[in-house]
Each structure stands twice: as C-alpha cells, then as structure tokens.
Amino acid sequence: MRILLIDIDSKIPNLALKKVEKYHLAKGDEVIWNMPLIAHNSDKVYVSCIFEKNKDKAKEWEGRALVGGSGYSLKIELPPEIEQVKPRINLGFTTRGCIRNCKFCIVPKNEGRTRAVGDLLDLWDGKTKDVTLL
Questions:
Q1: Radius of gyration, alpha carbons of the chain
Q2: CA-to-CA distance for 67 and 56, rounded, in angstroms?
Q3: pTM
C-alpha cells in the first residue's frame, strides 16, 4: 500500500504521524511525506493539524483523508494499534498532562493531570547521545 502523510504545521517531527509511519513501514507499506499531489495515487492519506489557526487547511482534506490533531479536533484519536507504536525518534514525552490551567493552553483539557506514559528508552533510537523531551 502507498501511504501519504501530510503534516500541516509542525516545526518539529509530528509524533502522531511518526507513529503512523512506523506502523505502516512495519507492515511493508510505502510511506511518503508531504506530497499532496500524489493523494489521488495513495491508498490511504493521514493529515495532522496541531494549531487551530491552520484548521481550514486541514478541513480541505475532509472526505479524502483521515484528518486529526489538536488543531483540528480533540475528539479524534489514533486507532489503538497505531497509538501504542513507539517511533523511537529521540523526541517525545515520558509524561503527559499538566498541573496548570493556563487560559491559552489545551493540554489540561485534552490530556488531564500529569501522568507517566513511558520511559526514556521508549524514545531513544539506541544510537544517538541526544534525546529531546517535550
């Protein structure tokens, strides 16, 4: 299968799409990033939008792709078999949630209170000396 991943607005690797990528690569699928012109030749298209200011760009994909991300909808989640994938890209979270309730932030509403979600070894590729915790 040919899988197209569209990252609407991330400046760092999009963790959800990296999970999707690893899941499909493990199945032997071809994964292509950010080439909207081949959408019609793709078996499945995933689109992620992190920031609400870009929601209209994500809406353009409705009906043609699986669209999600915090900037699009807090109700859409990855299927469990993809959510459990650990991409090991030396970037990610060992905890999720937040103890604060800043007016501008969606984290407490989206993820609840602070909780552990993994270990540093879940993020590390086993090679590099640097791992970025978000």
A1: 15
A2: 12
A3: 0.83
Q: How far apart are CA 134 and CA 86, in angstroms?
A: 15
Give CA–CA dist 72/52, Å, rounded: 6
CB count within 10 Å of CB 31 equals 20
* 11, 40 contact by CB (below 8 A): no
Residue with tokens 């990296």: 18
H or E element, residue 59? helix 55-59
Q: In one letter, which amino acid is 2?
A: R
Q: What percentage of the chain exceeds 70 in pLDDT?
A: 100
Residue 43 DSSP class: S
Contacts of 131 (CB under 8 A, 6+ apart): 90, 91, 120, 123, 124
Residue type, 113: R
